[in-house]
Amino acid sequence: MLKQPISKTFDIGGGREVTIETGRLARQADGAVTVTAGNCIILATVVANKEPKEGQSFFPLSVDYQEKFASAGRIPGSFFKREARLNDYEILTSRLVDRALRPLFPEDYFCDVQVLITLVSSDAEIMPDSMACLAASAALAVSDIPIKEIISEVRVGRVNGELIINPTRSQIEEGDLEFIVAATEKNLMMVEGEAKECSEAELVEILQVAHDAIRIQIKAQQELRALKGVTTKREYTKPVTDEALEAKVKAFAGAKVLEVAKGALAKHDRSDRFSAIHDELIEYLKSELPEGETELPALTKKLASTYYSDLQYYVVRDMILNERVRLDGRGLEDVRALDMEVDVLPSPHGSSLFTRGETQSLTTVTLGTALDQLLVESAAHSYESKFYLHYNFPPFSTGEVKMMRGQSRREVGHGNLALRSLKQMMPGGDFPYTVRVVSDILESNGSSSMATVCAGSLALMDAGIGIPKHVSGVAMGLITKGDQYAILTDILGDEDHLGDMDFKVTGTRDGICGVQMDIKVDGLSMEVMKEALDQAKRGRLHILDAMYAAMPAARPEVKPHAPRMVKLFIEREFIGAVIGPGGKVIQEMQRETGTTINIEEVNNRGEVSIFGIEKEGVDKAVAWIKGITAVPTVGDVYDSVVKSVVAFGAFVEFLPGKQGLVHISEISWKRLETLEGVVKEGDTFKVKLIGTDPKTGKFKLSRKALIPKPEQKPREEQQAPPTQGE
User: Fold this and answer.
1) pLDDT at 721 over 70
2) What would the pLDDT profile of 66-80 be if each residue is shown by its tens digit?
3) What confidence score (pLDDT) does residue 724 get?
4) Which among 128, 622, 645, 725 is most buried, taking Cβ atoms within 10 Å?
5) Where are the beta strands (DSSP E) in 386-433?
6) Beta strands of 557-694 (E only): which ranges?
7) pTM (2 decimals)?
8) Which residues are annotated as a binding site?
9) Does the pLDDT of residue 725 top 60, yes or no?
10) Nearest-angstrom CA–CA distance, 218 and 184
11) Binding residues for Mg(2+)
């Protein structure tokens, strides 16, 4: 018989309750909990190896979030009818949790840890990703795995000016911002989100509201852990150390490393110099071996490399903190040299090349139809997106050789940040195009995702898409030591590696559009956060000035080789007439005009998208559809084509798909006995709609109504007898 499960319930606001429970499911895992809100139930499990793998020198944490389609009463649509590899939404949720959890583990903890988070019951209105980190942290809290602190994560949305914790799906669609925030009881750990140009002050307020809600969730986890009786964390094997060897490495290489760090060298030159010092260090240590020995023991060589890497880390950090100078010689707030071009490729519909220092993005924009929309699918909610962005990070961009094995989680995450930032400026309403942006990173030395935002903004304007403002982005870094700290603008790859924070901020001149922040230390105080935001704004505005100089505004229209698209809205009852029986009418239109026409019912009316390369064909299709959907009005004049001639008149088509009779008496003011020689099939002339048959509803048309009536001769003249001799 199962033991009575242990649970803790708390209120997240507005009377909405969340319950954390342990002891009922997955009891062989080191830690397992369910988190329940409404009908949404998430199961999180965590298992850690007792010992690290032999020779392990890094922390192998894996986090996977997966949604079971059964949770929403659905069967997967794949060929195998089962859940397969994680989709982008699941990858992004996994990254949100991973980035928040990773700093919680001791620096010398190298045991494999696997966190699995599964959506087992779905609620159409409740967003499960905002509770995934709570579930993972709670599973760690009730285990004996040695984490330093408990954390949690919430989403903050704003609807009609009101900030809401973990808003529903409907509220998010109505709101103007959403941020997911993770924090410990004292400090922020991770931020990611988007906004329609919020200010720095508004973001700080959002973070404070989120932090207050997170503290409630942390308290609930602490109480759940106490109820379970977890009081200690497991001991673990710590890496072997050699203090004497560490001192030798520092004495031999310290000054050499500092000299290179101060040299303001390019990325690869600096890397080569550091590698050369490492080789010299190994040779130096070999020279101290007892006579007869020529090779260092494997452990000594490994430890020496580790201590040398640590030495670089601390020397560079101290240089930045104490001397306020960086690896490439810049000051703390300096942005690297900028270079940007638009229209760099002849065939794409829009293109740009953005270079900042040693980071470069070649970005293209492609315009498509509604048929090109991207299906975004999760267990509870699926929709089609008209705007999507793909980010590619080939190995040559960092001068490396690696296997190409498809898109990495990092590429998905970086592309998502750029997408969320740029979509804030995308036109809405009747904008007809599907837009695909592709960023190919050609060089990388820090913040290629921010280069993607800048290049994407330039390419969108180059394509003639009416975004009203440029969006730029800048990556910020942080170095801390005790009470000392230095905030860095536009960080290098090495500064990202050795820093304590990677904080990316995107936006326009008027506000923030996107944020992504990761903290590698215990957390970030609100005071430092405010300072980092202000410094990021200055960097963002500097880049924006250069972008406006390169491309002041969007092109007034798409390029000549880009497809033309027009969107029409028609009454619902005309949808069938435009399509025709078996699609006959719409197929004929597409064939005759050389266009692609898509029609669907939206909000009880027909939405027609006409897509074509030639403007003439698009205009012809527009006129055709307007003709089909036009309601003939008595008294209006139309161009007509004679379709057939009969004894009593001519049948003409005066609107696409609409015919009427021009009676023989309405052809001319002159009395006609026959139409032979007067009108023939294919003739064109203007007609006036003079009425409809009250019985049949057929249209009555007149040609003579548009011809001036001839003047009649005086009656005496008409009846005068012929003169003599005639």
Assistant:
1) no
2) 999 999 998 887 778
3) 41
4) 128
5) 387-392
6) 564-571, 596-602, 605-612, 637-646, 649-655, 658-663, 684-692
7) 0.84
8) 496, 502
9) no
10) 8
11) 496, 502
